[in-house]
Predict the structure.
Amino acid sequence: MQHVRAEEVVTAASVQDYLAGQERKSLLRFLTCGSVDDGKSTLIGRLLSDTKQIFEDQLTALHNDSRKYGTTGDDMDFALLVDGLEAEREQGITIDVAYRFFATPKRKFIVADTPGHEQYTRNMATGASTADLAIVLIDARQGILRQTRRHSIIASLLGIRHIVLAVNKIDLVDFDQEIFDKIAGEYVEFAKNLGFDTIVPIPLSARYGDNVTSSSANMGWYEGPTLVEHLETVEIDQAQAPFRFPVQFVNRPNLDFRGFAGTVASGSIAAGDEIVVAKSGKSARIRRIVAQGGDLPRAVEGQAVTIVLDDEIEVSRGNVLVAPAERPHVADQFAANIVWFDEQALLPGRSYLLRTETDQASATVTDLSYRVNVNDFAHEAAKSLAMNEVGVVNISVQSPLVFDAFSNNRATGAFILIDRITNATVGAGMILHPLRRADNIHWQSLDVGKQARAAAKHQKPAVLWFTGLSGSGKSTIANLLEKKLHVAGKHTYILDGDNIRHGLNRDLGFSEADRVENIRRVAEVARLMADAGLIVLVSFISPFRAERQVARELMEEGEFIEVFVDTPFDECARRDPKGLYARAIKGEIKNFTGLDSPYEPPEKPELHLQTLGKSPEEMVDVLEGWLGERDSADQLYDGDGI
Amino acid sequence: MLAKLSHLDRLEAEAIHIFREVAATFSKPVMLYSIGKDSSVLLHLAMKAFYPAKPPFPFLHVDTTWKFREMIEFRNAMAKQLGFDLIVHINEDGVRDNINPFDHGSNTHTHIMKTVALRQALDKHGFDAAFGGARRDEEKSRAKERIFSFRNSSHAWDPKSQRPEMWKIFNTRILPGESIRVFPLSNWTEIDIWQYILQENIPIVPLYFAKQRPVVERDGMLIMRDDERMVLRPGEVVENRLVRFRTLGCYPLTAAIESDATDLPGIVSEMLIARTSERQGRLIDRDEAGSMEKKKREGYF
């Protein structure tokens, strides 16, 4: 490339002209994917080398590395150019996606080199999410493998419409046309339902460069383009989508300026145009499109601008300015494709944080419609989605989101799911369509309010959530406390794990998914009871932090009181009031909390009761004292009662 | 037919989007300002992202006390001209122990005066997000890094378990003590940087332009003797040569190149025919194999 560049500069009238020429080049973002050892990194190394992107000092380093880690004998191991992490070089595998940059006289390229190992599928998805084309590599000796299919399905789900089927290592099968044709035919048949606009099969050898930048002398039978010729000329046309402007940031430097900063997700807008604020339906006109150096007459897809409206209407981060005639969906329930990334499986009923480009909401998977088998596309019934699995789900969010179907708009139809406790990005979603019932169910507005109901009982509603191992003393303490509260004239109710399982939750077992649903139902019941003005005592093992967090968020601020009944496992097993520990240890009960199913202790409970060596009465005294303080603090705060 | 954005327009928009995302979702961001050309571009983009407001975060310079004098002058002038909030942090423990690149070697010096100093500054102010000007085309381990790159409470990077980064949806959630390093220039190449500086007329430190400067030839490198602290070895002589710098760091660790490029077009055309990468002039990258990844895992930018 140094030589190519130098020639270009010499022939260009000046550096500025040369740079202007660079500026006119279009950009293609693509990724390489496929199974392990199909030669993805080698192909990128070859592309960089043949387009002369590698500097002398990098070549020297490559020589040294090839001797130290190389797998290609005396030849240079091009994969070492892209496998940038020590662990990758030592193990000879790609763990994470690497981004590389190169240019030819016709086009600029950003290539994501993605890992082939199944366990790193999330990193392949990362690379694919910003790409317009995928090079699917296949080892000519192996043909189509499971990972070839998985990556093709993920590429398709993530909106990639152009595939290059690179049948690599063709030198190792004597440049045999029959083998090439067979693989190409099988792939086209497999991919016929994946919605690709183009599939271009190319026989090549990344190691020796056949059909990479120049036509191979070894394959007279192949008449198609070389890989680089194809990459230089393939047309990527974006579907024209209506105007969408997700508001990222409200810019208010002073009282006279209120601008909405964001990036135009699709379409375009001009000063004077009418827009609608998606969530409220209110309309306004664009007064100014502000940029440093002077206002812009219009803004187009991809541009980051600041918009000032002619009307002081309410708009905040997460809302979207849209074209009045073509509005997006605004709904709190929708169906979506999901790719799952996390070691902890996706569980229906568990609460996650959902994030779109600028909005965020609490989300629950209400239904796992099916899992997709990556080999034959079969829709399989499933109770959870394990790491690297793909499925279709229904999602319910706590407040409505603005979105389009992902197939119509990659920017406004995508979301990620985040684990509430670890903050890990656990899944990626592509919205299919809103669910009808979101439009049809509205909250019934009630005349007698929660406050009125509580006031009639002369108490402040509360949900005391007792969590701890089986046999830790939750129910004993809760019962004693209820007696005392009752004597004091309070209106109470106990929701007990065992009792609820005999009625409301008798359809649920003890799998992780069922435990999540068990807690969700109890939390909802507790919320209704608190709404009725009651003091609710919930006595449930509730082993998972995420579910207790969901319960907490259902209640009003300060209403949820987490009581950790902390009794060590050995002590619980010794007490064994129901004989369950003895049976579980013998293996007669599966998924027993503390034994073969985890208990996640609360990190910051309102009350932490260490029961060892103390009587239940002492524990109840502590609780009563705490509740008394809470009530008197409230009275001070309210400014009445004294 | 709509006007299509140019390549630089897209890079600019992406960087601005990233700046705003951080301002909207973090409580205490900071921009690492290292005075070089990439920092100059970053600063220019930060001013654009929040116009007409000022960037809603301060700028932090970790001063190793061995930067070129012209860099410090330039830094102070920019802070004054643009009116941004500049924080300068120096590792006073290192100063007390007289840590320097000559006696302690580039590795120890960089670790104490830069990596440790940076961690000190981030902890002292409790910053939860820090912008840096690193680009993926600079170095192999940087090519692997996310735009929003998670750091645990000891500022360490775990390259083997990075968060997936899908589309333009960034996971900005962290627990107290954890932080995110943010790289708005991830997808820029060296030529993009120069082209943008040319297009936007962005001021840069004059050291990038060729000029007669006092240099010493040492270990095959041209080192500029910026002050008396650089003690000459036997046989070494200081001579004035027409040189410039491709990257800027601590002066004893940054090699000059002989050049007669005195303006931006000159620099760009020189770069186009260059046969070595820009980090070749950085002595710290070559101390040991994988040394950039190692430094980054310890909290270096």
